[in-house]
Design brief:
By secondary structure, the chain is an alpha/beta fold. Helix content is 43%, strand content 13%. The protein has five helices and four strands; from the N terminus they run E-E-H-E-H-H-H-E-H. Helix 2 packs antiparallel against helix 3, helix 3 packs across helix 4 and helix 4 crosses helix 5. The chain starts with a strand and ends with a helix.
């Protein structure tokens, strides 16, 4: 059973969120750490700064962004360890991955969850 959910960090906190893991490299604007109630801030799960800047949240770049981000998650040691850490945390409890992007479809959280499911199914 997969206990991993996605949620914008700006959405209200819910006890059903379980462990709330912020997966952005930068702290989201306009929300305090108290409001966010983040359990862990796992910066290494986020895309590299270079890739994030190149993507610029443009939907037309999402497919290529997805390819490049998956490559990072699979070849960069720190990012790969971050994925393994999320898998470990989610093995016996609910985990909610928090992101700041406005677009709920074209964002790195979707790609990360896809990679988590892929690795868990191996």
């Amino acid at each position: 059973m997969i206990n991993i959910f996605l949620k914008r960090v700006y959405e209200p906190v819910d006890e059903a969120d379980g462990q709330r893991i912020l997966i952005d490299r930068l702290w989201p604007r306009g929300i305090s750490k108290e409001e966010a109630r983040v359990t862990y801030w796992l910066k290494d799960a986020a895309p590299s700064s270079e890739l994030r800047k190149w993507f610029g949240h443009l939907p037309e770049r999402f497919e290529e962004f997805q390819r490049r981000y998956l490559q990072e998650l699979r070849t960069n040691e720190q990012q790969s360890r971050a994925v393994d850490q999320i898998i470990e945390w989610s093995s016996n409890r609910t985990v909610t991955l928090l992101y700041g992007a406005k677009d709920p479809i074209h964002n790195h959280a979707q790609v990360l969850k896809e990679e988590l499911i892929f690795r868990m199914d191996k």
